[in-house]
Amino acid sequence: MGGLQKKKFERGSATNYITRNKARKKLQLSLPDFRRLCILKGIYPHEPKHKKKVNKGSTAPRTFYLLKDIRFLLHEPIVGKFRDYKVFVRKLRKAYGKSEWTSVERLRENKPTYKLDHIIKERYPTFIDALRDIDDALCMCFLFSTFARTGKCHVQTIQLCRRLTVEWMNYIITSRALRKVFLSIKGIYYQVEVMGQLITWLVPYQFAHDHPTDVDYRVMATFTELYTTLLGFVNFRLYHSLNLVYPPKLDGKAEAELKEEDEEGYAMNSESYSEKLSALGGSLARVVSAGEEEEAEVDQFPVEGEDMEKMEAREKEQKELEAQKRLFEGLKVFLNREVPRESLAFILRCFGAEVSWDKSVCIGSTFDVTDETITHQIVDRPNAEKQYINRYYIQPQWVYDCVNAKILLPVQDYFLGVTLPPHLSPFVEEKEGDYIPPEKLKIMALKRGEKSEEEEEEEEEGEGEEEEEDEDEDAEEDEDEEEEDVAEEMNLKKMEKQRSQGKSLSVKVTPGKVKAENPARLEQEEKAEEKRLAIMMMKKKEKYLYDKIMFGKKRKIREANKLAAKRKAHDDAEKVAKKKKAKKQ
Amino acid sequence: DLSDSEDSVFSGLEDSGSDSEEEEEEEGGGGGGGRSVRFCEVLCAVQDIRNTVGNVPMEWYRDFPHLGYDLDGRKIYKPIRSQDELDHFLDKMENPDYWRTVHDKQTGSDITLSEEQVALVRRLQSGRFGDVDFNEYQPTVEYFSRDVMLHPVTNRPADKRSFIPSLIEKEKVSKLVHAIKMGWIKPRRVEDDSRGRYYDLWASEDSSILARHKMHLPAPKIPLPGHQESYNPPPEFLFNEEERALWEQQDAADRKLPFVPRKFSSLRSVPAFPRFVHERFERCLDLYLCPRQRKMRVNVDPEDLIPKLPKPRDLQPFPTTQSLVYRGHSGLIRSISVSPTGQWLASGSDDGSVRFWEVCSSRCLKTVQVGGAVRRPVCLTHLDSRVLLLSPSLADRQVVSASELLLSDKEGAEPVQGAESLVTWSEAEGEELNEGIRLKIQHPKAVHQVAWHAKGDYLASVMPDHSSHLQVLIHQVSRRRSQNPFRRNKGLVQRVSFHPLRPYFFVATQRSVRIYNLLKQEMTKKLQANAKWISSMAVHPGGDHVICGSYDCRLSWFDLDLSTKPYRMLRHHKKAVRGVAYHRFYPLFASASDDGSVIVCHGTVYNDLLQNPLIVPVKVLRGHAVSQDLGVLDVTFHPSQPWVFSSGADATIRLYT
Fold first, then answer.
1. Over the stretch B528-537, which tens digit does the pLDDT of each residue have?
2. Which residues form the BRCT domain (chain A) (predicted)?
3. Using CB atoms, which residue from B213, B231, B236 is nearest to A423?
């Protein structure tokens, strides 16, 4: 009886996975080539559910790939190109060794190259898929475009990255898709909404990088190779969706304006056009010269009940968005030379402001400092030597804070030499129970249009304090009650002791106090006890989960409390310092 | 060989100088080329005439009177007067031609250079041609120019090979052609700028989604920055010294934040982030090296996890508040028991006394000093190795006299058997009798527990011992007889109990409960408690359910009809469970634990066999203080009221109603 004996590890999950080395052998590739292939094709290791089963009983740490993934790589045409390249290198080395310069030249001319178009199409079958994954591509391209054109990677790559990022920024400006910006210590974060997808990327500050030695630039270069291809195709598609010319061209009008200036001073002829584009000053040429953007109005559908509410909310949101898109419209902003020009020009233009800068800073400035119609000048130095009366001199943080608050904030907090209010992250969305910094509350109040005067703010602060005090009192009351209980207990204990020691008690009849029993509170207590008892009856597994969740919740509350306490201590210290100063004066 | 040594050069110079005059006289302005050749010949000839030693260092002749030999083999003598330093000096001072006087070592004579010779030297020094008249920039004569000459340069007839195609070339070309055909040589590629040439890749969006895309796990996006990362964060997000020290101490993997929050007063003072490239690189590594796994995040409302139980209020009556405290003992109260009428309460304590209390008034009516720790009083008490039967004479007179009669009934006593010699029955006398002690049963070992049969005639005593089979004894009071029911040792016996209705006997050992049929004298069931060490046991008045408390904080409820495994395991005590009890007719049970609490649970048992018992905890009763890690030691219910008594290590008994 019985049939064939089942062997171990010949079916099931053990056959679905393959270790890296085995995969490499199967593909007949060297480790760097395998790595490159995995990066380009987007193949990554999988963590099996039962590692020991897959690892054939061993617990050694190994990385596993899906066998199907590796099989899929077998048919990749790029693998052939890798082999060609290997052959090419061998031939070239041989020719060099023999000093056959003609054949070296011939070989170099026929250096094998490959295209990644089909890989992009295969990895991202729809355009939305590509947009979803474009965050990393943008971060990488923006980083590479800031590299010096020496050493670490090919100059062409850097130039291509620069070109693509400029195209991307120009598209964002034209479509007014920017939503949030954040000045962090790492760099500047931008968040845009393109075709309903939120895309965030990080741009480093403009400094020379000191290249770390423990970073493998080949890996980064391979990623960049893929990302530049992806970003190029995405740009193309995006430009066409707005009827813009690709590769981008400046509008006829804008170009004419720029032509007037002497161009030779900035760059060579071949580069001047891309420089002009990267100045982000002019609008782009369109295939079909449409007048103004026609707003597609949302059709009204007859709806009922809850849908109605949702619909209204959506409409409100839409309106807010439209308002945000026109945030800086009508402003004429001049950038001083010490502020980050590209970032500010990008943001201001995204929200419809006119921007210019000093002629010597960059190509493409449209008006001068002396222009009387300038409304804001962005300055980042302790004092400006010559000030015009009819414009505000403000620090760059104002622009970023305005974008995040979606309103024009009062400028007086951002004047020259004023201590800036804290810059908050727009990406934090506080849920109930989270800590909200008071500055954010203030901005929210401003947005609601409640109070805008400083005095009132102060009042508000005062109120806030009172409220806090009230809360404190409540807490104190609780404590008092508890204390009473404790005192009673102590009394009883004392009596017990006296009794047990056989001493005659000092028995006294004291008028009893009427305990006011709060029915609401009693009910609460009863409920709490019910819950406690029910928790006791939980099964072990559920109890564990429940405890874990509750622990997380408690930790969150603790952290929020800690932050609040820290803030309070800080404010108190500051108040004391202020008072002292006032007294001295 | 002329230029080999200094001497020869000098000599040559001199010679040439002297000769050139002659030559010029002889031949006038000859061609530059021919002249230099002759120059050499003359030079050699002149040298031969003077000295034949050849090109040897003249120091070799330092110690000789001669310098060499002339052509005829005669010695050439040195000049007689050798000049010393003074002569040299004088010569230098006086002789106007001194600067152009050269000493010829081969002849030993001084030679004064002529004007022309000096000029020649100067010219050579400045790197010009020696000849004054030589023009180095002569116009070139173009013998082969693009102009077709009238006459051929050579009149040689053309070769045949210049008329016919070259075979070698043909061979080479054919080789190249072959190589190109075979693909060995690729024709020069047309330069295409394919990088950076883009088109609408998604023009024809096919919705065919490969199976791979279903398996695809997209990499999680980089978490968005919080307020801490701002260049100008609110002050509460900055580290204070403590947090900073902690951050520096921690391992990079344990840190909550990968960076220290910093505050800058203005945007221009923000420096470059030193780890920027690192972070991007790490992201790259994560993307292609990090194993991915789909993890289902548990997204439940914690409220949903709490089981829905009937409200305790609907399950009343049950004890809710502490109403009476019985004080009087000075040691731990190990055990308590209530009289069947519910009027009296007996307690045994470590202080060696048994006290009888009136339940309603919490008065101690009688104290019996028995000496030694008391484990269990039920109108009887057992000490280290004695079991005493007491008659407290607190009940109705009739009842008291009836029990007195029973206890003093000697007639029923049978002659002592051999097996019963282990235990000695004796009657109390004198003082003890006055105190109420009626019977003493002397055991060979320490008695830990005593259990009464429902009829009141039998009682079982437990003497836990690892090595002996004599652990449980069953006594019959009326006949003053004892017997050992077990032949074999089946583990350390913790508790015994009689079935309330049927002739069954429950024995709890360390990890299991055995049920014996007393009539058939065989084991009927063995319950696995899943606990490390059973501490207490109680049998439901219906007889079909058993609860066991254990020292590892568990309480297990067995349904005897269901299984030998616990029907429900309750882990609601924080410390060891010391005592458990069932109410006689209310669906209540209670457990006492070392954490100082008594938990009262509602446990309804249905007559319908298909319906499982409903267990709901209804009240946690606190009041006992914990001393020496001992909390509540025993718990028992009032026989008729939903009241519960508990005795604790703080020497009190408490009544909860």
1. 888 889 999 9
2. 323-416
3. B231
